[in-house]
Structure formats: C-alpha cells, structure tokens
Design goal:
By secondary structure, the protein is mainly beta. It contains one helix and eleven strands, in the order αβββββββββββ. The chain has one domain: Superoxide dismutase, copper/zinc binding domain (Immunoglobulin-like, Sandwich).
C-alpha cells in the first residue's frame, strides 16, 4: 500500500486550520451579546419655592463632640433667603468657625453626625460646605462669643419644597487645629421664636 506523500499532508493541514477558524468565527458571531445597561434615570427637577409657610424659626444650639459651644439663633424669612441672627458662645477666642444647615434635623449623635451632610437649599445635600466663604463664616471675639448675622441664600421656612430648611439642623463647625470641621454644636430649626 502506498504511503501518502508529505505534499498531500502539507496541503490538508492549512485547509483544516482554515475550516476551524471559519467555524470559530461563526460561533463567536452568533453568540448572544449583553445589551448595554440603560442610563440612570435623570434626577427629578428640584421644587424651589419663592416663599415658605412660616416667617420665623429658632435653633437652640447645644454642644456636641465634647465641646462647650452653645447658642441660639433666630431665623427670619426674607426676600432672598433666610436671615440668621443670634449669638454662639464657647468658641475658640478670635477664631473663625463655620455655621451651616445640614440635611437632617437630628442632633442625637454625640458628634452630631446624625444631622447628615451639609445642605445647600438650592443644590440639595452635598459633602462640601460653605465654611471657607461667607455666608457661613462666623468669627468669635476675644471672649469666645460670635454674633451671628448672615443670610442663607435661596432658603425658605416651611412648605416642604426642596429649599425648605425648617426641620433641618443648624451646625457650628470647630476652628481648633485638628478639628477644623468638627461638629461642635447642633440645633434643629423649629418654627417659632
């Protein structure tokens, strides 16, 4: 019986490889593909009220994070936001501190973390805050007391709109080295005087 020649074998190997490659490509082309994930739904538009249902509110600031800071601020609705006036004591003498609205009216945690993140009435809850710039900056005198008189732009009191700060928390942030953003006092903003 005659033996196949090397020439016949060398011609059949490339043909076999080519046929295998075609089959492999056909199998890949017919494999099901995953559909791309749908984009996340857009955030609903924020409901921004021009006016709230309450004209005055108060926040009694109690110490947190082991500080001695306390105070009382009165909040009054104005045409461009909510005016905050009052006094905060027990601060670092001649120190600059932050005063901010936070997303939840809950001061139950020892360090006031229960109040949540900084709340911008026009942009919603955010992690960054307004401590570096006015409004939101209060400065204590040599006696450790700061007189507060600032406006929270775009805020309203009552009504439930997204820019409503009634029922949220007002926080004082520390100014001591190593505790720049420590929550040293917290009070819930409630209707009344």
């Amino acid at each position: 019986m005659p033996q196949p020649t090397i020439d016949v074998i060398s011609r059949s190997v490339p043909a076999t490889l080519l046929a295998g490659a075609v089959l492999l490509l056909a199998a890949c082309a017919s494999a099901p593909r995953e559909a791309p994930a749908p984009p996340p739904p857009p955030e609903p538009p924020r409901e921004i009220a021009q006016r709230g249902t309450v004209s005055r509110a108060i926040a009694n600031l109690a110490s947190s994070s082991g500080s001695l800071v306390s105070g009382r601020v009165l909040l009054t609705a104005t045409g461009d936001g909510v005016r905050v006036r009052g006094q905060v004591g027990g601060l670092v003498r001649n120190g600059s501190h932050g005063l901010q609205v936070h997303e939840r009216g809950d001061c139950s945690a020892v360090d006031a973390r229960s109040a949540g993140r900084y709340y911008d009435p026009l942009a919603g809850a955010r992690q960054d805050g307004a401590v570096g710039e006015a409004p939101g900056r209060i400065v204590a005198g040599p006696d450790g007391v700061a007189t507060v008189d600032l406006v929270v732009p775009g805020a309203v009191l009552g009504g439930g709109a997204d820019n409503d700060i009634l029922g949220r928390a007002m926080l004082v942030l520390g100014a001591t080295p190593g505790a720049i953003s420590a929550r040293v006092a917290c009070g819930v903003i409630t209707a009344g005087e």
